[in-house]
Amino acid sequence: MEPRMNLMTNELGAKIGKRFYNVSLAIEQSSLPKATQDLVMLRASQINGCGWCVDVHTKEAAAAGEAAVRLNLVAAWRESTVFTEAEQAALALAEEGTRLADAHHGVSDETWAQVRKHYDDDQIAALVYLVAMINAANRLGVIVRTKGGSYEPGMFAGLSS
């Protein structure tokens, strides 16, 4: 399947994309650890089947120094020993917040309690917005069939304004 459209070459798409990126930049600049952000974005993108987003978040995390074993085990994080309790709480929130259409009942009280145990209010706000934004980005990529494989780390540097 070929990509349907490049939203960034469309005038309106690019205008909206810049604003979308600026929201993501605010999340990135929060006190939520960058490694946690990368893991959450990668996991949601895997669940949603967005090849472009999996490509972006895997390569950005690797460029930031994330270990290959952790990136390779994100899809099986519950069956792995390489993630902290805090990261596991964030990954659980990402999964439960992503699987809303799978007859899931949203984020469980147990998961929320684990998130509250490991993160402060600002970090939780960033995490909640992060899950919402990556799910939106995944949907954009899947709808227009943006393919993974061509992303180079840092490609979007300087996009904001």
Helix and strand topology:
Layout: H1 11-28, H2 34-48, H3 51-63, H4 68-73, H5 85-98, H6 109-118, H7 121-143
Helix pairs in contact: 1-7, 2-3, 2-5, 2-7, 5-6, 5-7
Question: What is this entry, summarized?
Answer:
This protein is mainly alpha-helical. It has helices at 11-28, 34-48, 51-63, 68-73, 85-98, 109-118, 121-143. Helix 1 (11-28) packs antiparallel against helix 7, helix 2 runs antiparallel to helix 3 and helix 2 runs parallel beside helix 5 (85-98).
Q: Can you describe this structure?
A:
- Pfam families: CMD (PF02627).
- Residues 26-96 form the Carboxymuconolactone decarboxylase-like domain.
- This is Carboxymuconolactone decarboxylase family protein.
- There is one protein chain.
- The chain is mainly alpha-helical and 161 residues long.
- The protein has a domain at 33-143: AhpD-like (Up-down Bundle).
- It is built from seven helices and no strands.
- The chain is globular and about 45 Å long.
